[in-house]
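BUG-448 | component: ligand-complex export | severity: low

The export step for LLP jobs runs without errors, but we want the raw record kept on the ticket for reference. Input record follows.
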Amino acid sequence: MAAHATTMNAASRKSAGSGPLVYRGQALHFEQVCLESIARAVPTPFYCYSADAIKTAYGTLAEALKSVGVSVCFAVKANGNVSVLRLLAELGAGMDIVSGGELARALAAEVPASKIIFSGVGKTRTEIARALDAGIHQFNVESEAELAAVIEVAASLGVRAPVALRVNPDVDAGAHTKISTGKKDDKFGIPFESVPTLYAKACAAPELDPVGLAVHIGSQILDFSPYRAAYSRIADLVRLLRAQRLPIRRLDLGGGFGIPYAGGPTLDIGEYANIVRETVGDLDCALTVEPGRWLVGRAGLLVTEVLYLKGTAEKPTAIVDAGMNDLMRPALYGAVHPVFPLKQHGRGAHTYQLAGPVCESSDIFGTYAGLPQLQSGDRVAFGCAGAYGASMASTYNARDLVAEVLVWGDKFRVIRRTQTVQDLLKLEEAGEWQGSLDHAATELRSAS
Ligand code: LLP
């Protein structure tokens, strides 16, 4: 997906998208709520999620995986909003976390610790201790050094840590290089050949309860064949370890299911379930997946307002009030998110480059054909923004972290208020250093 290729405006297709995003009359609605009515109450830009879309995605996934007995842990990194986590937890999801911060979020959403898996390549000892204190389900350990840290912390707390080893299966997931995790040169996981020795070591450590293996090969994967390759390798490993009388009772199969940003059919999770059945289904292991994007990606919009029109007749540009700090994916991966005008003035014949206000040349969302003529004050929504949108946002250029809104039925509610620069300035208010700085300034003045 090249950032600067022209994209057909999604709204010029027959429907605004699948599921709850529809035009009624000329007005874009999310479920029963008119997005313009939210934009009158909440300043743009803001993220907006559909509870129904999350429920539908979770229901489809859980139903397809039920036949193979796979449980679902949501990858919190995709969307860590506590209301979103709570909704997913109520639907039955556990959580996959990668930091102490995400642990705090999952616990704030009242997810039972027994349903939390701690992944990630660089857990600190403090984070490990917090997770052990909370009593989480499992650590996915990614190196020998990390295993030593878990042993050390568990010993100091006098508890046993449930650990799985994350295997690097050396499989190319075919995803964007920046989100590929399963090839041997990627920083993730333990080299396939090193796993047996390390697993035996884990089994010998009284501080550990070695539960099994984990694997995650990448993200935005749109073809299931790399999963077949990876899971077949994992199955071989399970047989090898069992032949050495090492116990394996759980397999964490990772996440990575892609979504169609440019429209079109979604992945058939039934086909994925078949792969699971055929590769690891006969191993008598408890199976878990940890998807993020697939559960929430399509359920989110980033609503923004056109500030100014500029550029040449050949290349008209609309500067919108959302920037790369709010939605980093286009600048970071060349991703293209579909765009939907909030008021559809018929099928548009206009092409615009949509750009944000951030002082970086890469602050471009893309060039979209099929848009109506835009004016300052018009609003548009970027679709498929529910995953890795708000969770990756930053305050670059001293911009706000924008509000998040949840829609359900004919209601909506702000589920995170805007974090303004005033909130951040409070963190920089006169600290202890301030006095010494004042002192240094006085000295400088008197010396000059
Ligand atoms: N499990 C582990 C260990 C992961 O590293 C990830 C994602 C997931 C699960 C969930 O993957 P998903 O099902 O969401 O594909 N910021 C990038 C995506 C980075 C994904 C990192 N790891 C993006 O915006 O495309």
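Assignee comment: Attached the raw record above. Residues 75, 77-78, 96, 119, 179, 181, 216, 219-220, 254-257, 290-294, 329, 333, 387-388, 392 surround LLP (CB under 6 Å).
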